[in-house]
Structure formats: structure tokens, C-alpha cells
Write a structure and sequence with these properties.
By secondary structure, this protein is mostly helical. The protein is about 80% helix and about 0% strand. The chain contains 6 helices and no strands. The longest helix is centred in the C-terminal third of the chain and has 35 residues.
């Protein structure tokens, strides 16, 4: 898989900003901004709500997040930009299936035309139609 330099810089920038926000959550009276930044608003609201009653708990959670974000394993983070690649592959696969469907339909229409013109028999038409569908 190939990444452009822009996507690598964007990835690094997002990771650094998330680490900064998580670190700020360990020293500031508010925590969870990094969760909002990562597109996890439910976790962000949970951090803010729990931080209101027990700020030391959220400071610990933010410190754990900083450590997790610094680890080389990026599977647990939302920084991964492969999601767009997976969606693009799924879209291309669906496009191929749609194109194949259109090809089958047009082939059946051509067979129908040949049958109506008497160039192939009903039996031949049915055999070729079934072969196309399978």
C-alpha cells in the first residue's frame, strides 16, 4: 500500500495533536478533548462527565491514553488512515459487480432478440440464459 507524503504528515500531525490534548487532560481541569479530536464524541462526553465528579480519575485515564498513543502499535488508535482505502476497495468491488450485472443483462437482452428473430431456439435461449446467470 502506498501513502503520499501528505497522508504521512497528516497522520503524524493528528497523532501529535492527540497526544498534546491527552497530556493537557492530565494537568488541566478538563479531560477528553483528545477523544473529541479523534472523532469519538461519546468517549469525550464520558470523560467530561466523569471528570466533573472525579477529576483525578480522568487525569489517570488521560495519562493512560498518552502512553497508549506513544506506543508503536497503532491498531488501538483512530489515527489509522487505511479506512479510506478499505472503503475505496469495497466501492471498486461493488462497481465491478454492478458492471458484471449490466453485462449479463445486456447479454440476455441480445439472446432474447436472437430468439425473437428465430435465430436460436427456445431451448438454446434457456441454456445460454442459465449459463449467464450462473
Amino acid at each position: 500500500m502506498q501513502f503520499s507524503t501528505d497522508s504521512k504528515n497528516s497522520f503524524s500531525k493528528k497523532k501529535v495533536i492527540s497526544i498534546i490534548f491527552a497530556f493537557l487532560g492530565t494537568i488541566a481541569p478538563f479531560g477528553g478533548l483528545h477523544k473529541f479530536y479523534l472523532g469519538q464524541p461519546i468517549w469525550g462526553v464520558l470523560y467530561l462527565a466523569l471528570g466533573w465528579n472525579n477529576p483525578s480519575l480522568i487525569k489517570i485515564a488521560c495519562a493512560v491514553d498518552v502512553v497508549l498513543y506513544l506506543l508503536p502499535s497503532q491498531d488501538i488508535l483512530s489515527f489509522n488512515s487505511n479506512n479510506g482505502d478499505v472503503q475505496m476497495a469495497n466501492l471498486q468491488q461493488k462497481s465491478l459487480v454492478a458492471q458484471n450485472t449490466v453485462d449479463v443483462v445486456s447479454a440476455i437482452r441480445e439472446l432474447e432478440t436472437l430468439r425473437q428473430e428465430g435465430l436460436i431456439s427456445e431451448y438454446e435461449f434457456e441454456q445460454k440464459r442459465r449459463a449467464l446467470i450462473d
